[in-house]
Amino acid sequence: MHIVIMGCGRVGSTLAHNLESRGHSVAIIDQDADAFRRLGPDFGGITVTGAGFDGDVLRQAGIERADAFAAVSSGDNSNIISARLARETFGVSRVAARIYDQRRAQVYERLGIPTVATVRWTADRMLRHLLPEGNVEIFRDPTSTVSIVEVPVHKDWIGRPVPALEEATGARVAYLIRFGIGTLPTASSVVQEGDQVFMLVTDDMVATVTAVAAAPEGAQ
């Protein structure tokens, strides 16, 4: 995949290195050329000096062939404008924006742009939005036995009851993030488009739970 990142701060540079270490092609944009020093001499991707909401700058970064775009600069307005430009003008299917204002983040979630509003776990959450495979652990109990992981769910599960997903995976859905707001599922809850699903698992069941949730119902 080719992934374009706007913002070469601590999050952007960490994200760039993580993506590159996974074998992806990376381009990173920042208005301050000195910011690229955070990448170090081993970074093999593209660096572009300029504003991430400038079409010409985005083209230099390869936005026209990009599979994903992450806006992680220090400005909410810049992040959301560039994210919408990447999606609406250049047709990038996977777009995520870092937003500092939680209330604004909820608004943009409703517009269909995944946002990350908290500082903690930002790089890992961005990886989850850009690379749908796998899962992100967000909690582990003190005995290191039970954890909560965000599990990518196949589109065929949309409209299906949460209990059906639990029965198929053998794991409990701890909570959902819907329209940017945490929701506790009930027996009558159904999976909706855009839901982020967080499940309680043990280490020995993570691979099975992930595989079942990522496949159409009944495929496993």
Automatic annotation (TrEMBL):
One of its GO terms (cellular component) is plasma membrane. PROSITE patterns: RCK_C, RCK_N. The keyword Transport applies. Keywords: Ion transport, NAD, Potassium, Potassium transport, Transport. Residues 1-118 form the RCK N-terminal domain. One of its GO terms (molecular function) is potassium ion transmembrane transporter activity. It comes from the Bacteria. Pfam families: TrkA_C, TrkA_N. Residues 136-215 form the RCK C-terminal domain. Gene3D superfamilies: NAD(P)-binding Rossmann-like Domain (3.40.50.720), Regulator of K+ conductance, C-terminal domain (3.30.70.1450). This is Trk system potassium uptake protein TrkA. It comes from Micromonospora craterilacus.
